[in-house]
Amino acid sequence: MEHTKEHTSEPWVKKNRDPQRYVNGEDYGSPYIYSEGDHRYVAEVQSSHTIEAMEANATRIVTCVNACAGLTNDEVKDFGKFARSILLIKKTYRTELKEVKQAMVHCIKGEKP
User: Fold this and answer.
1) Using CA atoms, how far apart are residues 26 and 46, in angstroms rounded to an integer?
2) How confident is the model at residue 3, as a pLDDT?
3) pLDDT, tens digit, for every residue of 60-73?
4) How many domains does the chain divide into?
5) pLDDT (tens digit, 9 = 90+) per residue, 25-74?
6) What does DSSP assign to residue 25?
7) Residue-averaged pLDDT of the chain
8) Quick one: 34 and 64 in the same domain?
9) Residue 35 CB: number of other CB atoms within 10 A?
10) Are residues 59 and 43 part of one domain?
11) What are the two backbone dihedrals, phi and then psi, of residue 23, each rounded to the nearest 5 degrees?
């Protein structure tokens, strides 16, 4: 993919933290994100969370960026709103379907829902 002025080119990958980084005997190596499209480092993922949380955050960032490859920033924002709407509809549907199933079970058993 060609480089745009909006952001660093995809694909992005999560690189393993550097196991050689220790401070006072503690491993503080953070995962980092690398652009294979631009052949450069994009970010180091740090937080006050555990190493596992930092790894999960880096994976989430890379997954989202790569899923949006080819979209402009405005398209990404619009898609995010659309995706949230779909997820809300899905959640509502599941809840309503569960209630319908429970009512059917009660009816089959001759009980009042």
Assistant:
1) 15
2) 42
3) 999 999 998 988 88
4) 2
5) 555 667 889 999 899 889 888 876 787 888 899 999 999 999 989 888 88
6) T
7) 81
8) yes
9) 19
10) yes
11) -130, 120
Together in a domain, 102 and 64: no
Residue 60 near residue 10, CB atoms below 8 Å: no
Neighbours of 19 (CB within 10 A): 8
Query: Would you place residue 20 in the very low, low, confident or very high pLDDT band (cuts 50, 70, 90)?
Result: low
Tokens read off for 11: 């694909």
CA distance linking residue 62 with residue 54, whole number of Å: 12
From CA 38, how far away is CA 40, in angstroms rounded? 6
Report helix, strand or coil for 42: strand
Is 18:12 a contact under the CB 8 Å cutoff? no
Range of the domain at 29: 1-70
Could you tell me the two tokens for 17? 């933290």
For residue 15, the one-letter residue type is: K
Please report, for residues 44, 83, 102, the alpha-carbon distance to residue 96 in angstroms, rounded to integers and kept in the order given.
43, 20, 10
Helix H, strand E, coil C: the string for 42-89 is: EEECCCCCCHHHHHHHHHHHHHHHHHCCCCCHHHHHHHHHHHHHHHHH
pTM above 0.70, yes or no: no
